[in-house]
Design a protein that fits this description.
The complex is a heterodimer of chains A (371) and B (363). Chain A has helices spanning 13-28, 49-59, 66-77, 84-91, 97-103, 111-123, 129-139, 148-178, 204-213, 220-223, 295-309, 313-320, 323-336, 343-353; strands at residues 8-9, 227-233, 238-242, 245-247, 252-255, 260-263, 267-271, 274-278, 283-284. Chain A is of the alpha+beta class and 371 residues long. Chain A is globular, with a radius of gyration of 24 Å. In chain B, helix 3 (64-77) runs parallel beside helix 4 (96-105). By secondary structure, chain B is of the alpha/beta class. The chains are: A alpha+beta (371), B alpha/beta (363). The interface between A and B is large, with 81 and 98 residues.
């Protein structure tokens, strides 16, 4: 039993206001250091105050209702329904033409088309990680670029996707910052009060986004479904392209899904399942890497998959650390044994790798010879 | 206004704590935002993760008239916070309709947590006395759900409940999944089910080691926690997914997992009335945490005079509010691994410390 105290329940708006004001003063006394310099990406059509304000209005629910968002999720999840007409009809979502074409699973696409689609959606203030997921997943259908202009275009596309993911992170943080905060019990216990709306509309978002963008990362794109690797041989012949730029390469580095590896000579990477040899003269993304896994390393991956399918939690965890190298084998295994005990775990890993926009088709990128 | 607004939002947790402590010093408490009533221990299922050991009815449960007089009338005095009815399975009470009718007449908004099996039969009651929110448990795909809940057809019943409630126009129907070691990796398979169910949101609870769940370690492993949190974060752009209170705080990253920053509401803005009328800070089964019984003391007085440890600094588990108090007191702070990375250890106090650090950085 708790120690009793002689307290009363607070009543009246004025008293509440006074106590709230006192609390604010008390917390403010500690100081409020914040970076005030807005920094927005120059090459993103979304990074304009009016576009961001539009995004915010949409996110606040004035344009896209929760029902529409759910419908959109269903459409993304069920590729059969991904026709532009169905998207427009079911969601009322202003899906631009090229982007709508990319939504459809069938049909060829190219880096240039994906870039155009990204431009389109950013101009109408669709900024979210699912956009990155959708476009990045389509990248798996495009063969590895062989010419220098094609490689530069691929770099540009991944730079833009990285920027978009960072912008999405900054927007979430900014929304949380400028939205009305109430400690509401309805998170899990009750319900939102009548007339509740998620956050006010405000142009302040642009300033807040700018402030957060400076230190925003691409979120789950760099924090999960990534792989720790060590360069065993040929470090001087390897460039790590991150956000479209070559970054300083350390002997150990984390390979993200938006990264590219460019080789000028043969390179051997050590992963936690064994060595993987990258041939010279290639530009490799996470969609090509599984095709280079061979020999004992592939045997290790297969053994881990067999254990994971049997329900081995440790094998599942190890596989989660080598997804950029093993996702193709995982897809095959799940297709072959969809009812296995551990199959849901493998599907969960694939959902993390694909960023929850699950592919139904096998990407199976054909290994292309060095130019 | 702009600055105050932003300042309030970014420092909301700190301001809330400061306000709660100030009020405590001045001899006041805020009225609760919600009062949860575990209407009965009776349940027709025997789920391994049940936090209340539900099954048989407890002797001395509050009658309908007691519930109306000792709880609903008191909620009117307390400014009409939401009256959340849970269980056991609250819909097994024959007087359920009578109680919600009284709440409706008293203009007290009510919400319900249910396994959904009896919703269809009671749809006329829901139509007549509309709830503010109903959370229906969905633990996994059909086979898993039915096996886990020990009854074939319970999965279909839950889905029919969600559809029926949405058809009635219930403003918020939540598909609630209690994540445990066995279903943590089923969430990708569950996504299409939840999307197709028509639920407005997907609440991901985390098993708490009390009641029947205390008898076996169902808490997901650290890698599972990371996977689930990461999955939820990805989905939030598309569907309204929330990591509920049992997950604790993600510090400055809370905005990626939930709509509002985390603050444990136990004894601060929520309390729980047990089937026999004891008032506890949350759904704990530890009767030693009771601050009084509504049969002998008015709820308003119990609320005002109890739970001091949650409203002042000093107690490392109760006084901070940055972690789920119930999980922390059981030493289950490895949940921090979900947000803070693989190097997070299982130190029971680590999460509170890390959260505080994160809060400081955020500030």
């Amino acid at each position: 039993m708790y120690k009793q105290q002689n307290h009363r329940v607070l009543r009246g708006r004025l008293r509440r206001f006074v106590v709230r004001a006192m609390a604010i003063v008390q917390v403010a006394w500690v100081g409020d250091a914040e970076a005030r310099q807005p920094v927005l990406p120059a090459d993103s059509p979304a990074a304009q105050p009016d576009v961001l304000a539009e995004y915010y209005r949409r996110a606040a629910g004035s344009k896209l209702s929760p029902k529409q968002r759910r419908a959109l999720a269903q459409l993304l999840y069920h590729p059969v329904a991904r026709s532009p007409a169905v998207v427009a009809l079911a969601t009322g979502y202003p899906v631009p033409t090229t982007f709508a074409g990319v939504l459809a699973t069938a049909g060829p696409t190219s880096d240039r088309e994906l870039l155009a689609a990204l431009d389109e959606v950013e101009k109408v203030a669709i900024v979210d990680t699912w956009v990155v997921a959708l476009l990045w997943n389509r990248l798996g259908d495009i063969p590895e670029p062989k010419t220098m202009p094609a490689r530069l275009l691929r770099r540009k596309l991944l730079h833009r996707l990285t920027t978009h993911a960072r912008l999405a992170t900054a927007l979430v943080r900014a929304r949380a910052e400028v939205s009305r905060i109430e400690f509401a019990p309805w998170r899990s216990k009750a319900a939102p009060p009548p007339g509740y709306r998620r956050g006010p509309s405000s142009l302040e978002i642009a300033v807040a986004v700018g402030r957060h963008y400076k230190r925003a990362d691409p979120g789950t794109w760099t924090s999960s479904a990534v792989s720790e690797v060590r360069v065993r041989r040929g470090k001087s012949g390897l460039d790590l392209i991150r956000g479209g730029q070559a970054v300083k390469l350390h002997a150990r580095f984390t390979l993200g899904r938006l990264d590219l590896l460019e080789t000028t000579k043969e390179v051997v990477l050590q992963t936690s399942v064994g060595p993987v040899t990258l041939p010279a003269g290639r530009q490799l993304s996470a969609w090509q890497l599984p095709t280079l896994v061979a020999g004992d390393t592939q045997k290790n991956v297969d053994a881990l998959i067999l254990s994971a399918l049997a329900g081995d939690e440790q094998a599942l965890t190890t596989l989660s650390e080598v997804l950029p190298f093993a996702h193709l084998s995982l897809r095959r295994a799940v297709q072959k044994s969809p009812e296995a005990k551990g199959a849901p775990g493998l599907r969960m890993l694939l959902a993390l790798f694909d960023d929850a926009v699950v592919r139904t088709e096998n990407p199976n990128p054909a290994p292309s010879p060095a130019p | 206004m702009g600055f105050i607004h932003r300042f309030l939002s970014r420092r909301a947790a700190a301001i809330w704590q400061a306000e709660t402590r100030l009020l405590h010093r001045l001899g006041y408490v805020r009225p609760p935002h919600a009062v949860q009533w575990l209407a009965t221990s009776l349940c027709d299922l025997r789920c391994p993760h049940c936090y209340t050991q539900a099954g048989r009815r407890t002797e001395g449960e509050l009658t309908a008239s007691e519930a109306c007089r000792h709880i609903i009338d008191e909620l009117v005095v307390l400014g009409r916070p939401t009256f959340v009815i849970a269980g056991g399975e609250a819909l097994l009470r024959k007087d359920f309709g009578e109680i919600v009718a009284y709440a409706h007449r008293s203009q007290v908004p009510w919400a319900l947590h249910t396994h959904g099996g009896r919703v269809e039969q009671l749809l006329p009651v829901f139509a007549r006395y509309p709830p503010a929110m109903v959370a229906v448990s969905v633990d996994g795909p059909r086979t898993y759900h039915d096996q886990f809940r020990g009854r074939e057809g319970s999965f279909d019943g839950a889905l029919r409940a969600i559809a029926g409630l949405k058809q009635l126009g219930c403003p918020e129907v939540v598909a609630g999944t209690t994540v445990n070691r066995h279903n943590a990796d089923l969430l990708a398979d569950m996504l299409p089910i939840v999307l197709d169910s028509g639920a407005d949101s997907w609440g991901l609870h985390l098993v708490t080691p009390e009641g029947r769940a205390g008898g076996h370690d169902l808490l997901p492993t650290a890698p599972q926690l990371r996977r689930v949190a990461s999955f939820a974060r990805r989905l939030r752009g598309l569907v309204h997914v929330e990591l509920d209170n049992e997950w604790g705080s993600a510090g400055e990253d809370d905005c990626f997992y939930r709509d509002q920053p985390f603050l444990c509401g136990a004894g601060r803005f929520v309390c729980v009335v047990t089937p026999t009328g004891e008032v506890t800070p949350c759904t704990t089964t530890d009767r030693g945490e009771s601050a009084g019984n509504v049969r002998t003391t008015k709820l308003r007085d119990i609320w005002a005079q109890g739970f001091a440890a949650f409203r002042q600094p000093g107690d490392p588990t109760r006084g901070e509010g940055l972690d789920c108090w119930l999980q922390t007191r059981h030493g289950k702070s490895c949940r921090g691994a979900a947000f803070f990375g693989a190097d997070h250890t299982h130190d029971p106090h680590k999460l509170v410390q890390v959260s505080r650090l994160r809060g400081d950085q955020h500030v």
